[in-house]
Amino acid sequence: MLNSYYIISEFNSKIETNLKKNSKINVIFRPKVNDYNNQILKRIIKTNIYNKIYLANKSNICPIQGLAGIYLSAFNKKTVISTYFKDKSVIGSAHSIREICEKIRSKCNIIFLSPVFKDKANRKAIGIIKFLLISAHFKNITFYPLGGIYYPHKLKNYGLNGFAGIEYFNKI
Questions:
Q1: pTM for the model
Q2: For every one of its 172 residues, what pLDDT tens digit does the chain have, with 9 covering 90 and above?
Q3: Torsion from C-alpha of 114, 3, 80, 64, nearest 10 degrees
């Protein structure tokens, strides 16, 4: 089974049902800028006791029991991590070598590189070969593809054991 990370910006009954079907999906809660609500986060944690929950871009919040760690988006340039997250996982996403280096300084142990495959937004994808070369260059970091993943089972053919997504999970 691939490690999978579902990036959500809202929590509704459809998402809740999808998560209950598969306890192997890690959840990254990335609320809209002015839509952060501690109660929603606590509900996600309480409802999804089998899923690991990561909070996006909130490294300065009070400790919330049940969080597996923090997710730093590619646009988050902060490198200071709260002492609460010292013992938690720190994951991030990047679109370039410069952003990868920023995430390494932020102590990320998993980095989502995006977009690897062409997605609906038709952004220029880096492709699987470049993704594998970048992954090989940074040996101490785990890289997972993000963007344009429609057939995750094919990732195993490249020796990858995880991915992150939004649209893929919205369809299942």
A1: 0.85
A2: 678 998 888 777 777 777 777 777 888 888 766 555 667 777 777 776 667 888 887 655 555 677 888 888 888 776 655 565 667 788 999 999 999 999 998 888 899 998 888 876 667 888 899 999 999 999 889 999 998 888 888 898 998 989 998 888 877 6
A3: 130
